[in-house]
Design goal:
Structural class: mainly alpha
Radius of gyration: 11 Å
Number of helices: 4
Mean pLDDT: 84
Order of helices and strands: HHHH
Strand content: under 5%
Distance between the termini: 30 Å
Shape: globular
Largest sheet: none
Number of strands: 0
């Protein structure tokens, strides 16, 4: 298993941690990103990359993948 981080692509995250697919969908981050990094895509969507990373890590740890929209910060 690889360590996913801000420099990993969304497909890498989903392959390694399928539960994160729900988080990406809720945040409007497209899984067909052409290999661009999570950080780059967050910045393009005016999402705080560190906050998104925390939500993904929580989903992996907790297993439910649910993210309330009010819990993430814009850049």
């Amino acid at each position: 298993m690889i360590k996913c981080d801000l420099f990993s692509s969304i497909p890498d995250w989903i392959i390694e941690h399928p539960r994160t697919a729900t988080v990406f969908e809720q945040l409007g981050l497209d899984a067909s990103c052409g290999g661009k990094s999570l950080e780059y895509l967050c910045l393009q969507q005016n999402l705080n990359p560190t906050t998104v990373l925390r939500r993904l890590e929580d989903a992996v740890r907790d297993g439910d993948g649910q993210v309330a929209e009010s819990n993430y910060e814009a850049c």
